[in-house]
Design goal:
- The protein has 520 residues and is an alpha/beta fold.
- It folds into three domains: 2-61 and 284-476, Glucose-6-phosphate isomerase like protein, domain 1 (Rossmann fold); 73-267, Glucose-6-phosphate isomerase like protein, domain 1 (Rossmann fold); 481-517.
- It contains 20 helices and 13 strands.
- It has helices spanning 2-6, 10-16, 35-47, 50-58, 92-111, 135-143, 145-148, 163-170, 190-205, 224-230, 256-262, 264-283, 290-304, 322-334, 366-371, 393-410, 414-419, 449-470, 481-494, 504-518, and strands at residues 18-21, 24-27, 85-86, 89-90, 124-128, 154-158, 178-183, 217-221, 237-239, 309-314, 352-354, 378-385, 439-446.
- The strands form three sheets. It has a six-stranded mixed beta sheet with strand order 1-2-13-12-10-11, with helices on both faces.
- Helix 6 runs antiparallel to helix 14.
- The longest helix is centred in the C-terminal third of the chain and has 22 residues, at 449-470.
- The radius of gyration is 25 Å and the shape is globular.
- It binds 6-O-phosphono-beta-D-fructofuranose (F6P).
- 6-O-phosphono-beta-D-fructofuranose (F6P) binds at residues 130-133, 184-186, 189, 192, 246-247, 332, 477, 480.
């Protein structure tokens, strides 16, 4: 890379290896690719059937083979008259109906027409959910927090079954003015149901009568029966469908917390931005297709260089939760080692995805990215205009973002150090940066809901394309099941109501915990 950038036609490289789509600018010139590599990667995408599988996804085919379902999250952000069908039936009327109900409800809560049981307006909304029923809306609400100031209720997210999270949230709430969204695709998830029950007990203990709870609870789910059984009026349930994967669901009623936080118009803009990226993904030729290009660069490093991890570095505090969202999106989707046909995958699949907001990461783990023994491809993401800032701050932030990518690529040689006056030959090797380390830089003008929608959809499609190339099902998640099953009898044992056989290590851990729990 250092040589390529030293050439006279380096500007041409940037021109050729950059793209614009849906309000996003991608510079992928700082990658270890020649024009030949790039052409071969595109050929690989073509031969892997990316175009056909993409079209099958948009056509509502059951591409989630192990669950025999479509994966049609793209329909959630489509226009009401779009042609999306599942099993021959249009899904648009139902999507549109739920969208209208979300609009009506969010406007009534925000406008004060929906009140708590004592007639007071809602000041706080708690979204109880986990995984896809938490990470997406939590990340978007954080990213767009600047739009919610003074216009909407405060939004809280509770996901963990560790009671600390709910307990610490509750101390800040007034039950008369609190609305709870129980957000769960299945409405059976252990963490969510435990938190939902504790939340209901809290209302009952704090002066809200059982027959008034309906003013304080709504549900987002695909499981009407379980919602009704929990005691939530189905009239207060916002539906979605089993052909939406949890980690692809923030565009559905799972985004209700977003509409409540920033208003329905902003939520609608988010959908619009995602739709713009969908259109680009569906129509752009592979070599000019941003999700495809990014996916194939990821494949290049994962499979041809064997790089085991990749780093997401948003230079934006507003986007600080984007890496956590991406972890579920990529690793739950592509953390598989069995191909679609049930045979073992013979290539490496999802890398470990990690990262935090810049510049903080620079003062923590960037040492390893610059000089460590593993090479870590980095995605830098930065809004050029900050949602809010203070004089002088944003130029410093952007300068650091660009400087990191430059330093990774350029490095610093021993000769440069000597030429700059470095005479301590013992210390010199420690100060050399080999460079030639890859990164993408994604820029957007402002962090609007529209561009945020496009950014999320970009990574959704990038994840999907990689799954196609690896020939795996990106839409199931059987790997989360076993631990859930094994936790049930262990919980009973910890409560002293059962005894089961375990390996020696697990048995010793349970015994140790029981001794402490028995003390009360
Ligand atoms: O345990 C993993 C998982 O099934 C995720 O795929 C999902 O997003 C999360 O749990 C929450 O599931 P639910 O929305 O059904 O509560």
């Amino acid at each position: 890379m250092q040589d390529w950038f030293a050439e006279a036609e380096a500007a041409r490289r940037v021109e050729d290896f950059s793209l614009e789509a849906a309000g996003l600018y991608l510079d992928y010139s700082k990658n270890r690719i020649t024009f030949e590599t790039f052409a071969l990667l595109m050929k690989l995408a073509e031969e892997a059937g990316v175009t056909q599988r993409r079209d099958a996804m948009f056509a509502g085919e059951h591409i989630n083979t192990t669950e025999d379902r479509a994966a049609l999250h793209v329909a959630l952000r489509a226009l009401p008259d779009a042609p999306f069908k599942v099993d021959g039936v249009s899904v648009m009327p139902a999507i549109h109906d739920v969208r209208c109900r979300m609009q009506d409800f969010s406007e009534r809560v925000r406008g004060g027409a929906w009140t708590g049981s004592t007639g007071q307006t809602i000041t706080d909304v708690v979204n109880i959910g986990i995984g896809g029923s938490d990470l997406g809306p939590r990340m978007v609400c954080r990213a767009l927090a600047h739009l919610g100031d003074q216009t909407g209720p405060r939004i809280h997210f509770v996901s963990n079954v560790d009671g600390t999270e709910l307990a610490e949230t509750l101390v800040r709430l007034n039950p008369a003015r609190t609305l709870v969204i129980i957000c769960s695709k299945t409405f059976t998830t252990l963490e969510t149901m435990a938190n939902a029950r504790s939340m209901r007990d809290w209302f009952l203990r704090n002066g809200v009568a059982e027959n008034q709870l309906a003013r304080h609870f709504v549900a987002v789910s695909t499981n009407r029966e379980a919602v009704t059984e929990f005691g939530i009026d189905p009239a207060n349930m916002f539906e979605f469908w089993d052909w939406i994967g949890g980690r692809f669901s923030l565009w559905s009623s799972v985004g209700l917390s977003i509409a409540l936080a920033v208003g329905f118009d902003a939520f609608d803009d988010l959908l619009l931005g995602a739709r713009a990226m969908d259109d680009h993904f569906r129509t752009a030729p592979l070599a000019r297709n941003m999700p495809v290009v990014m996916a194939m660069l990821g494949i290049w490093y994962r499979n041809f260089f064997g790089m085991p991890t990749s780093c997401m570095a948003p230079y934006s505090t507003s986007l600080e939760l984007f890496p956590a969202f991406l972890q579920q999106l990529e690793m739950e989707s592509n953390g598989k080692s069995v191909q679609l046909d049930g045979q073992p995958a013979h290539v490496q699949t999802s890398p470990v995805v990690w990262g935090t907001a810049g510049t903080n990461g620079q003062h923590a783990y960037f040492q390893m990215i610059h000089q460590g023994s593993q090479i870590v491809p980095v995605d830098f993401v930065a809004p050029l205009v900050p949602p809010r800032s203070l004089p002088g701050h944003h130029a410093k932030l952007l300068a650091n973002c660009f400087a990191q990518a430059e330093a990774l690529m350029r490095g610093r040689s021993a000769e440069e150090l000597r030429a700059a006056g470095m005479t301590d030959e013992d210390r010199l090797p420690h100060m050399v940066f080999e460079g030639n380390r890859p990164s993408n830089t994604l820029l957007m003008e402002d962090l609007t809901p529209h561009v945020l929608g496009a950014l999320i959809a970009l990574y959704e499609h990038r994840t999907f394309v990689q799954g196609v190339v690896w020939n795996i099902n990106s839409f199931d998640q059987w790997g989360v099941e076993l631990g859930k099953i094994l936790a049930r009898p262990i919980e009973a044992e910890l409560n002293g109501s059962a005894h089961a056989t375990h390996d020696a290590s697990t048995a010793a851990l349970i015994a140790r915990a029981r001794r402490v729990l028995a003390r009360g």
